[in-house]
From TrEMBL:
Highest taxon of the lineage: Eukaryota
Taxon lineage: Eukaryota, Fungi, Dikarya, Ascomycota, Pezizomycotina
InterPro entries: Arrestin-like_C (IPR014752), Arrestin_domain-protein (IPR050357), Ig_E-set (IPR014756)
Listed name of the protein: Arrestin-like N-terminal domain-containing protein
Any single Gene Ontology cellular-component annotation: cytosol
GO BP term, pick one: ubiquitin-dependent endocytosis
């Protein structure tokens, strides 16, 4: 900044790292310090929500595809405003050398204001119409220079008369959407896996044997072999920190099978996959970056847990998503989208045979539950120890008897206690009693523990 150039700064009330939600108000001040007289053309404040996608692609030359990695790369960048609220602070004004301050107040809107054309042709993963605000988001893609950014900020622009540079100041705000649910309890969805029906024992009879048995109506061992149909129970929507219950039930679709051998749960694997896509460019060239990440949350083997037929068995207890920077709520905006899937693999064992039931389901991660609502929830998990609340504080009357003097209690010979126990400590004490009394040590000298000195001891204050 050159000498005499004005400076612009934005200060937000409260904690600058505060996490804002839908409908909340942002208050603060914009400060302008002028070192000399300034001819101000305009001073404006903009409250913006933006969606920025960046990527690069190599230049391919016909006949030189093998050298594509060494060539320069073409940069693509697209910026779309989710909303833009503007306030004019000054317009055509002359300011003297002084420090100026103006207050401002903005409110986070409920949804975006921009609409994309229906001819954009960006696919079903991206929104075209107005939608709820996505959370603050920043991700580096696998392409060199690739980024996907959703940001919210307040920007001040000072435009002066003449050929003078424009001054800017920006204050970034963190935003997280609100949870719009009447009940926070996850809704369990059953899924019958008919296509994964398991026949543990293979039928080794020939076609002729099957015909002869049908004609003669002879009983066969085939009736004793169950046909296992698994059913998975899982939530499709979950919030970070909330219990994610998974259950399984198996049924025998072959009737008249009373002497069933019990199945066992052999293994359990749960994988959560993250898919992030960002697109930028124009109608004819729209490069898209895809970032995929797989996280194994549960991996258990050799469980040997009995699994009766027609009984709901819990696969997980107290399984929760970690509320960190990776656990971003599911969203899709104009050029960026993020969604999740959950893969459940359950190993079953019937006698000496094993079979794996596997299913992949979409998982929508909701915004986190407010802390005040989490505190009010009562845990209903059988494996968790109930927490007893602390007793309420009750004020008690102070005792009229003064505490004995430290030197008197720990002295090795009987001495008289001093009436001014705290008067010698820096002069801050006050006399507790004006009458001196003589008291002796009740414990014999042989029972007292003499202090020892250890030069290697470490003291922590």
């Amino acid at each position: 900044m050159s000498a005499g150039s004005p400076s612009v700064r934005i200060i937000v009330d409260g904690d600058p790292s505060r996490l804002y939600r839908q409908g909340e108000i942002v208050r603060g001040r914009v400060i302008l310090v002028a070192e000399e007289q300034e001819q101000v053309k305009s001073l404006k404040l903009n409250f913006l929500g933006t969606c920025i996608s960046k990527t690069t692609r190599p230049f391919y030359v016909s006949g030189n595809d093998r050298d594509a990695n060494s060539l320069t790369r073409r940069e693509y960048r697209e910026k779309t405003n989710l909303f833009n609220i503007e306030r004019t602070v000054l317009l055509g004004y002359t300011l003297g050398p002084k420090k100026y301050s103006w207050g401002f107040e903005f409110k986070f809107p409920e949804c975006t204001e921009t609409r994309h054309s229906r001819w954009a042709g960006r696919g079903s993963r991206y929104s075209r119409e107005s939608h709820a605000l996505p959370p603050s988001f920043h991700l580096h893609t696998d392409s060199p220079g690739g980024e996907a950014i959703v940001s919210y900020y307040i920007q001040a622009k000072l435009i002066r008369r003449g050929m003078r540079e424009m001054k800017r100041a920006t204050q970034v705000l963190a935003y997280h959407p609100s949870l719009r649910c009447a009940s926070y309890a996850p809704r369990i969805t059953p899924r019958v896996l008919y296509n994964q029906t398991w026949k543990p024992v293979k039928d080794t009879r020939t076609a002729m044997d099957k015909v002869l048995n049908k004609v003669s109506r002879k009983p066969t061992t085939r009736a004793s072999t169950p046909r296992i149909v698994p059913t998975l129970y899982y939530p499709e929507r979950i919030s970070p920190g909330q219990n994610l219950p998974l259950s399984l039930s198996i049924s025998n679709s072959r009737q008249g099978n009373d002497d069933q051998v019990q199945c066992h749960l052999d293994s359990l694997t749960v994988i959560i996959s993250t898919y992030t896509t960002s697109m930028c460019g124009n109608l004819f060239s729209q490069p898209e970056d895809n970032v995929t990440k797989h996280v194994t949350c549960i991996s258990k083997h050799d469980l040997n847990q009995p699994l009766p037929f027609d009984t709901l068995a819990k696969l997980t207890t107290n399984f929760r998503l970690v509320d960190d920077a990776e656990c971003v709520p599911t969203f899709n905006t104009y050029t960026i989208s993020r969604h999740y899937t959950m893969t459940i693999a359950v190993g079953l064992q019937y006698q000496n045979q094993k079979f794996t039931v596997k299913a992949t389901t979409p998982l929508e991660i909701l915004p986190r539950i407010p802390r005040a609502d989490i505190t009010g929830q009562i845990s209903d998990h059988h494996d968790e120890v109930p927490i007893e609340p602390l007793p309420l504080y009750e004020a008690t009357e102070g005792c009229g008897e003064s505490a004995p003097d430290y030197d008197t209690v720990y002295s090795l010979t009987p001495t008289s206690s001093r009436p001014y126990s705290f008067a010698d400590i820096g002069g801050y004490g006050t006399p507790l009693s004006t009458s001196a009394s003589t008291s002796g040590v009740a414990t014999s000298i042989s029972e007292l523990e003499r202090p020892t000195y250890n030069p290697r001891a470490t003291w922590y204050l």
